[in-house]
Every structure is written in structure tokens, then in C-alpha cells.
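Below: protein 1.
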Amino acid sequence: MPDIATIAASLEGKLKKPRADYLEVRLEESQTSHITYRGRNLESIGRSSATGGCARALAKGGWGFTSFNSFNRLYGRLVLAAGQARSAGTGKSALAAVEPVVDNVPSGVTKNPVTIPLAEKKRLLEEYNDIIWSVPGIRTANIGYSDSRKKVIFLSSEGSRITQERADVALRLTAIAAKDSEVQQVGLSLGSRGNFEAIRDLDKQVTGMARHAVELLSAPQVKGGEYTVVLDPVLAGVFVHEAFGHLSESDFVYENDRMREIMVLGKQFGAGHLNIVDSAAEPGLRGSYKYDDEGVRAVKTYLIREGKLVGRLHSRETAAKMSENTTGNARAISYHFPPIVRMTNTYIEPGKLSFDDIIADIKEGLYVKNWYGGVTSMEMFTFSAGEAYMIRHGKIAEAVRPVVLTGNVFTTLKNIDAVGNDLDMNQGGGCGKGGQMPLPVSNGSPHIRIRHCLVGGK
């Protein structure tokens, strides 16, 4: 089979021939490996590769899409997508204008993580698993590792030809402790833009994770109610991604009458110290790239600036429909899917306060860290913190059982009354939407303080 660069060259000049207002092709080569442990046992290990592509056409406002693993009769795939689009279309096509681009973007990593022997990866994860199980009181453990290397060539009927390569590494460890009828768990998520070294030398962190899970079995439970709560960068980053970031994806806003009424640009959502950003233009993060899957250049997009809603995330189509600027947020997890509006690296910008400043005047409150679950529904959210500690008279006090935070995201944004100076980005995990998951993203924040936060407890 010829490589995708040769196939792409054979298509140039043909994308304008099928009858469509716009047509694009993505060709992809990828390699992945994975290792999974359940309890003490290795559950799954393997390596795979895939080559394929997709064609997407727009005609009279309707889209056609087809994906394929064979490159035989490739021009027929373009004709098929264009025909589907003409059948679906009943109006006028609208895409925000972008300049055609010809570019080649390397992955930026010196070693493809997939080529590291599976035996070496297995030895490292076995070490971490042995550490977890060496802690008395551990009942079980879960470990999931994955890596990938991908090369994608994007072609459009407007004249773009973009080759991008990227690599990714992700690791999730969970230690679960149990005694009698009590069960507690603590997790650790890490990742990188293809650098395998980012998951080495974690012995101390893994030990601390397992010990803390056991300690939580005897920790007291908080009385439920309203508290002043301080979130660490991990949990605050999850909050900004899950509770607010998805509401900023413009396809959701455009299709939802209630959200269009709420998410009005210029509306005050927080105090002047609150700034929320989504940016694939940040270097070296898992959600970073130079161009999205529509060939649009990534930019830094302020969603909230000085407390006001000033932007949202767009594909070319949603930007045209809402008469707003493109942001480069159309992403597809693979050639099996069309691009949809997705977050990249979403975070709260740092303020000026130290952690000691943030907790100094709290007589009784909670410091919550990490997370292991959550649910959002429109503007309502519920998150489970991974760790929790009492704050008493401006000092961190005893550990307590992990708590559940719940509330309305817009009320909560207004109640953020302090933002720290210690921004940290969480590289673990991935985002799901429209059946496409886990998409590499990162999220982060400095420490933040929230007044009147509803906490579940006894």
C-alpha cells in the first residue's frame, strides 16, 4: 500500500470536481499500544496500527461524510460524500472564511512512545502495581496505560494541504482500600505530549496514593452544608472543563434555546479577577496543535475575561452561523468521525494570591483535591473530590472523607472570590463527546476559593 503522502498527492487537484460547495479529506496513519491491570493481574496488553481516511462534503447547507480503510477507488469516495451532502442540503452553505494553508508540522518528540518495547512498559507498571499492593489494607487496584503516534494529512477544495504529526501518553492508577463495609479509593492521572519519561519515577506518588486510600477508611465524615471551599488546581481544572467548558462549545449553544439566552456575550459571570481560557496554541500540552481538523489555525480564546463572557469555541460552520470569529476548535478523534466542536487546553488564568493568602481568613472550611467522578446536566454539576481536609482558623487541619460538591455553575462562578498565583495543568484523562472519546485534552487552574459551596456529607 502506498503511504498517505503519495495518496494525498494523487488527490490534489481532484477535490473541486465533485459537485459540492466545499470538500475536505483527512488521511491518517496511526500506531497505538495499551496495557491494563485489574487487581493483581494483567488484563490486556497489545499494540495495533491503522491506516485510513475520510471525506466530508458540504452542499446546500447539508453535510455528507464517508470513512474508509481501503484507498481503492478513492475518487469515488469524494463523489459519494458530495452526493450525500446534496441529498441532505435544503438551504445555503455557510462556512467562516479562512486562508488556505500549506504546512508540515512535526510531532516535536524525539522518540515515538509506541516503539518502546511492551516488555519495558509492562515492567514499569508492574512496579507501580506491586507498590500499591504492598500497602496493608488495599483491596484492589486498577491501572490503565495507553500511547499513540499519529500522522494526519488534511486536504481541502480551497487549497489547504496540512501534514501534522503528534504523539500521546496517558496513565491512570487507582488504589482501592476496604475494611468491613467501608470502601475508599484514590487515583492518579498523568499524561504527556508523547514523552514517556513523564510517567517514570512515580514510586513516591504511588505509595502516597495507596496509603491515603487506607487512611481514608478511618477518616471522619464532614457534616453536609454550605462551606467556603478551596479547590486545588486538579479539581478546579476539572470544574472549569466539565461544568463551564462544555457550555462554551458553540454547537451546544447554537442548538439550545435556553443556553442562547444564558450564554450572551458581554454578560457578567464572575468577579474581575476571573479569566477562563481555551487554547490549543499553548506549547507541549496534550490538547495542543497548530491546526484543527478543519485546517484552522489554533488561537488563544478567552471565554471569560475580567468576569465577563467574551467568547466561545467554534468550528467554521458555527462561527459562520453565529457571526463570530473562528477559534480552531473543530476536532475528530480519528478518521472514523467528522470533526465537531471540542475543547483543547482549558484553564483559569492565575491571579496574585498565594495559597496561604487564600486560606488565611477561613475560620472553618474545606480544602478539596483531585477527583474521581462527576456529572453535569446543563448548568448543574456534581463532582466527587478525591481528597478533602478541614481548614480551621486559616490552617489545613485533619483529613476527612472525600466529599461531593454540587451546585449551579453560574452561581459558583460568581462565588469564586479568590484566585491563586500557582497555575498547574493536569495532563491526565481525556474528554468524551458525540461518541468520540477519549480525546486528548488538558485542563488546569491555580487554587481557587469558592464561597457558599454546597457540600454533601452526613
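Below: protein 2.
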Amino acid sequence: MKPFIIGVTGGSGSGKTTLVKELRKKFSPEQLCLISQDNYYRPIEHQKLDKNGVVNFDLPKSIDKKSFLRDVEKLIKGEKVVQMEYTFNNEKATPKEIVLLPAPILIVEGIFVFHYKKMRKLMDLKIFVHAKENLKVIRRINRDRVERNYPLDEVLYQYKNHVLPAYEKYILPYKENADLIINNNDDFDKGLMVLSGFLMNLIEERSQS
């Protein structure tokens, strides 16, 4: 049986990655599989430079779309996927091997997952995670300085020149087509509760069919 495919997107700092990680904790690997766009960034030497010679990771072409789609399709067919974690060029981080197992629920998460037409057509449910712009900036600063070892001036430059323009052009236009919008200005607890309950019922129904 084809898995129920959920696409999750939102702007950088909206909390979409945290949402799906919390959701995954509520289910076993046999019930739910999460595949993240973040592990499909092309090597830094293949990324486009902006007018100031700074690498711009916030473009659809920054992602190896073919490999991403290939692995999603493998999971749909019931095949295992093995990949290496992308560490965002953080010299302090050691990449881990990630093993993805096919499951009745497949979550595809990332900023461009609605923009990629072939990927979007596979989705049974499209979720858009929303947060106020000032909150997204603060969250982005905290994340990139701690997890990715980026200096503050670099984080702010990227947000102004890369992140925000990409959000307005490649992400926000698809908000109107989302089946469910989860607000994360304070927290996403209620949205997580509703989504978890829906998926638990779906898994139960499929196990009985």
C-alpha cells in the first residue's frame, strides 16, 4: 500500500523541523518515516555566489533535487534509503549515517518541497508552518550560531539577502495551497496534538484494512 505522504514547509526559523522531529518521537520507525531536504544540499563548491561573492544556499538549485526525489520514490516503493547527514559546513560537527525505512506515513520536510512540482504532486497532505518574521530571525540567529557555528554578521547578511527573498519568492506563494497551516508564534503544541491524533487514527485504519 502506498504510504500516506505529508509535505511540511515554512520559512527558515518557523519551527517546521522541530515540529516534525517532535512528531516523529510519537511514532515508531515502522509507523512513520521522516525525510529531510536538509540532507540534500549540494557541496559548497557547487553553490551559486551572490553579487558580493557570498554563497547563497537559499535557492531551489542549492538542493540536489533529483537525488531527493529518487529517495522519496524509493521509500514509496518500500525500499530502504541510506544517506549521510549534511552538517552545513560546520567543522565542529561529524556527519552521521542516516538509515530511512519505509513506513505507512512518510513525511517530506524542507523549504522547497512545495516548489518542486513532482514532489508536490506526491503529497496527500500539505502543511505550512507559520511564524512572525521577527521571531524567525531570532530563531535563525540562535540556531545558526549554536548548531552551525556561523558568526552573527554572517547570519544577518544571509537572512536579509538570501533567506527573506527566497521565502517571498519560493515558499510563501504556496501557503494558500496548504491543507493545514500551523501557527508557531508561541508554540505548536495544539497543532502537534491535532496532527498526531489524525495520524494515529490513519495508522489504525490501515492496519485493519
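The helical segments are 16-25, 65-76, 117-121, 133-146, 152-171, 189-208.
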